[in-house]
Here is the input.
Amino acid sequence: MQAKILRFLQEKEVRPVGSNQKVKVDVRIMAATNRDLETEYQKGTFRRIFISASTLSRFTCRHLRERRSDIPILVNWFLERLAPERNASVTSAAMKALLAYDWPG
Here is the structure.
């Protein structure tokens, strides 16, 4: 699959299913991973050229367990975003549980 995606990135064209003709495309791709691509390359599971072709901008976001002070902010954002008409809130016990959670993955 990496070879097909790399070819798409380099040639900027696709062949729709059932067609014999290629179509030029102008797209932007945003991808995310929780794996270290350099390590995956060293293990032989990820191509070096694909990293070079696909990494125009790269940033790392620390795990939530490493930035627990963001948890109340995120909780409030989700409540406002997903239930604005309910005037929902989180009890102090629930917030304590969220802050104490290990947040694996």
Q: What stands out?
A: The two ends are 25 Å apart (CA to CA).
